[in-house]
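Pipeline run #58 for the internal structure catalog. This entry was flagged by the ingest filter as a single-chain record with no existing model, so it goes straight to prediction. Upstream metadata was stripped on purpose; only the residue string is passed forward. Reviewer on rotation: M.T. Logging verbosity set to normal.
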Amino acid sequence: MFVSVQATAAETPKPTMDLEILSNGQLVLRGEIIDGIDDLEAKLRIMRAEQPPFELSLKLPKTFSFESIASMMKVIQNMGLSLGLIGNSEAPKPAPVPPDSTI
């Protein structure tokens, strides 16, 4: 009996909280605009204390730099939160092939 209860608990997915980074760098958590990284950290701490364990679903703009999201990722990592990435739905474009310079 214990095994089936454990298997059922393992199959139950964690709720997901949406975190989006807009192309202008603004953060949106569950549809609410966040003022900055400190505000994000405070809201995540409150959510973690008041709600069952959850995963963050991170939606990124088509173009971004990892440097621009480094502080946010550090907060998420330090809090020990699970993170799933949602990227652009378009397939990645292959890198351009340089012209053959041997001709």
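catalog note: The two ends are 73 Å apart (CA to CA).
catalog note: The CA atoms of residues 25 and 69 lie 9 Å apart.
status: ready for reviewer M.T.
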